[in-house]
Amino acid sequence: MKKIMTRLLSLVLLGAFIPSFVLADRWYLDTGDIIVEAKDNTQTVSQDGGAPTVDHNPIITNNGKTENTVIINAEANATANVTLENVNIDTSTTGRAAITTFGEGDVNIELNGTNTVQSGAYHGRCGKDQLRHSDHYGRK
Fold first, then answer.
1. Are 79 and 109 in contact, with CB atoms under 8 Å apart?
2. Triad 11, 60, 71: Cα angle to 5°
3. Per-residue pLDDT tens for 30-41?
4. How large is the average pLDDT for residues 109-115?
5. Could you write out the three-class secondary structure of the chain?
């Protein structure tokens, strides 16, 4: 019984000391557009008009095809970090850009799984001078 209590206490303490910023939240495009904003040392994510939530490593995914978009704003001297995982965004009928990036900061996009992005006329799929992307193997 003492061993079980010791192990249980160890697990509780371990869980209490894991920094919450290490655990990335999943954001589903099926629910609405997603906005990621990086400024100073903070990154927030909001969806469909909801309140911004601090999330330094958001994982954006969806089930099936969607017309909802990802908007990423990285202010000067800030870096936005986003993971796209198995997204399928098609805004060709809405005329909008599937992924919009702006601001004077850097944007890092990690690509996991199979990602398909198609934008409306006169929009690139994703564009920014300071854009870096990699897959989960670290390839760029």
1. no
2. 135
3. 999 999 999 999
4. 92
5. CHHHHHHHHHHHHHHHHCCHHHCCCEEEHHHCCEEEEEECCEEEEEECCCCCEECCCCEEECCCCECCCEEEEECCCCEEEEEEECCEEECCCCCCCCEEEECCCEEEEEEECCCEEECCCCCCCCCCCCEEEEECCCCC
